[in-house]
Amino acid sequence: MFVCTNLIAQMTLSTTFRYCCFFLLLTVAKGFCQENYAFRWYTADNNELPQSSIKAIVADKYNFIWMTTENGIVRYDGNTFTAYNSSNTNLQGSRFTDIFGSIQKDSLLCYNEGKKELALITGRKVKIFNKKGPSANIIWKGQHSYSHDGLPSYLSIDPTQQFCIKLPNGNTFFINSEEVELCNAKMKSIYKIAYKNVSVYNFFPIGNDLFYLKADGSYDCFAQNKRFSGKLNIDPSAKNPKIYWNITTKQIFISVKNKIYRLKDENGRLSAKFIVEFKDFENSNIVSVFYDQANQKLYLGSNTNGLCIISFPAFKSVKKDPTKAEVYYAAQTFTDSTVVTPSGLIFNNKKLLDSLPFGKTVDLVERINIAEDDEKNIWISRILNIKCYLKSTNYKKHINYKFNQNPKTLFKDNENTIWISLGNSELTKAKLYSIKNGKISLVAIFKNNINFIAQYDDDTLYLGSEKGLFTFNKRSRKLSFIKKSEGINVRSIFFDSEKKIWLTTYEKGFFLYENNIFHSFPKDEDNYLSSSHAIVEDKNGFFWIPTNKGLFQISRKTLLEYSKKKSGAIYFHQYNKSDGFLTNEFNGGCQPNSNFLKNNNIVLPSINGLVFFNPNKVMPLLPGKQLYIDRVIVDQKAQQPNDTIVLPNSFQRVSILIAYPYYGNPENLHIEAKLEKNANSRWERIKNERSISFTTLPPGEYKLMIRSLSGFDSKYVYKKILLKVPAKFYQTAWFTILTYVLLIGFIISLWYIRLYYIKRKNEKLKEVIDIKTKKLATTVKKLQKTKSTLKQEIKQQETLVKSISHDIKSPLKFLTNSITHLFENETIQEDAQLKKHVGTIKMSTTQLYEYVENLIKYSSIFIEGKKLEDDCYSLYNLIEEKIDIFEKIAEAENIEVINSVDPKLRIRTNKKALSIIIHNLVDNAIKNTQNGRVELFSGTKDNILLLTIIDNGKGMSKELIQYYLDFYKNPIVKNYHLGLHMIIELLLIIQGNINITSTEGKGTAIEIMVEYD
User: Fold this and answer.
1) Mean pLDDT of the region 839-850
2) Residues 6+ apart with CB under 8 A from 548
3) pLDDT tens, position by position, 875-900
4) Which one, out of 509, 555, 826, 1010, has a CA that is 20 to 30 A from the CA of 957?
């Protein structure tokens, strides 16, 4: 078994190297524009590796990289190389070559020289077994057959000897220079083919098929039941491709003239996917190759030169002279794939293509602005001048606009108007001008410089100044300052895909301006985002923000969620020089400060070139989803890492080392730890050492929480460890319990004494309560008797009202019907005078009947209360019925009654109550009007019915109106109109409201408001 012998059991990079490794990469790694890759060699010369021969390279189940050398096995996590050899384990021999086994089963096997010891790689560790390995060859038909160990092979140098290759399906190919035979798992022959070949080292399997690669790039394939040939899709002139077969990862590579390809079986055909052209490949004695596609890394193991790691940056920096540092600011989109600078240089993502005759820029102000109008004319700023270079003259001629101040910002809006801000000085204030159809107009004067101009919609411009944000309406010419922005030095303004407004600033990071609120966001740990130059949104929901310390990629969704919750973390993914930049310092303070080309390339200016990248092709290396405890060191002694760690009571120091495979920029790791013992525990950042240390913890159990941001969703992955520190006898629980028992016993004695005193006091109090309770019970009985009497009286009154109403109603009904028949008699019809009198009697009896009917309804309403009808009914029809009742009276008084209620309106309000209310409203209106007009209107608002009746009668006094409004609040009857009293009482029952408007001599308007559904 593996035994760790001392504190430095695993050789790691020195502390200084861990801090500098990343920066060494930036200085040593070389990038080539035509390939856009970077590489870095690691050797034993500077103590990075235990030895400079890398025999095999494999990634395990947990994404750690394992390598074999002639001085032990090495684990790489993207930050540190850890060696396992005879100096820190119980290995007798440290010379290793191959790595076999299963990655999925977390079981990788390595035998040292002579196969005397077995190293098992499992659980991210190496375990040693004194177990001699099996023989590398088996006897097949009287011949030795070596089990293939990959290519190049370490087993033999004879290319004609017999090899066997076991396939994933259990079958085995036996091959030599004369024939190929396939056998099943029981070693029975499936088929045998005579096949003469130059070298058995040109055979390799992909899946369950066997391939033989020839010198001209053609190949033969031996499948389960067939054989066919083909030609690789590589340069036809390429000869003698060299094969690299990583037997454990099942990856096959070939190299041809320093070009590296990966071979794959696509539908039974062998294809070669180009990876990179590495100029040092053929001269570096490469013997092992591994391609980590997830992390975009190519690992090359040399027999003499150590390990080379090649990365493939997605970013490209271009400039005019590759040998000189060149500072760039504003650039304008020129075509779908190019930009043009204020000095006239035209770039694509590979090189300088052409130049326009704009003249050389001298001052910084001449490089910060450029714009293109609708006629493709290009506008640039020069000292005290704005120049418009004409597309019609192929940009050889220009129109000059002279100013007495230096241009600060240049912007073209969607109406082809050019907006120019001029910088302030000791003698002049900042100004905003516009140029439309060649005419210059002064728009506004400012105290501070306008740094950026952006158009929100057809009418609105946003102006970012050194001290706040303004809006300008182009139609009304109104300039407005946005409150609470005076402390913001705006660097740029960006409108995202949903027209949300974002600001980047000097020193204060970036903001979201929404609903008149400025939302700020947490800074990155090193505050690089404090000075954000610009924001560019890609089509995948990410913001790209350049700074003076690299480029940041942030999830827009995460930012919006934070702006609502104001809590949680935000994952900022940083890119730097290792990703293809020539510098980490980008430029801002210009317009345009970025470009999103139609070919999906984003272009950003920097102090050394223009940076091009396609956000769709950028594959960010995100932190992993797992945290691992690698080692636990207690007082310089190693301890087995577990989820529960027991520490000695008198320990001095414990260090917990974290294993975390990550192959990107170490600045993107955000690992924190917290020892949870009390509510004041805080998360602390774990630096590059990836270790947590504690000294002399008091006895008890502690929960150590470790977390890491795992990606753009800004969610944490957690690892929990329980630390136990045993206590001495006086620190134990039983000692504490005994102490508390004694203390509790003393307290209980005091409690009993106090309890006796309280009981005596309670007995006296109980006697007083009993007397009071008896009096209260007597009072309650009297109230109950009174309540019962009142109920009986109310019931009798209701019965009386119903009885009287019913006794009157039946004769009235009969009288009404009789008078109706009499009125319809022909004799009555012939006598006009008699007809009139009979008609009057008919109308009066009909009204009297309606009054009795309303009285019955009125009495029943007090029982029903606010009750909605089961079915909807027409308000228009209900009003029509009431108008018919008063038709003759209205005609007699020469009054026009109009029903303007919506005929389609259907309601469920208590019909009885509403019928009486409408009846009384119409009655009152007709009584108080002569030779006039009465009209009813309706409306609805928020489930409320608004019913209004208007007349032009004699009106009401202010005193009377106030009385009725007060009566609604406090129903105390005075000697006024009974109809309105009844209306208000009914409204109180059905929870309605009333509003009265009247002018004496001109008329009255009464509005009733009730729920209608």
Assistant:
1) 72
2) 528, 531, 584, 585, 586
3) 899 899 888 888 878 887 889 999 99
4) 1010
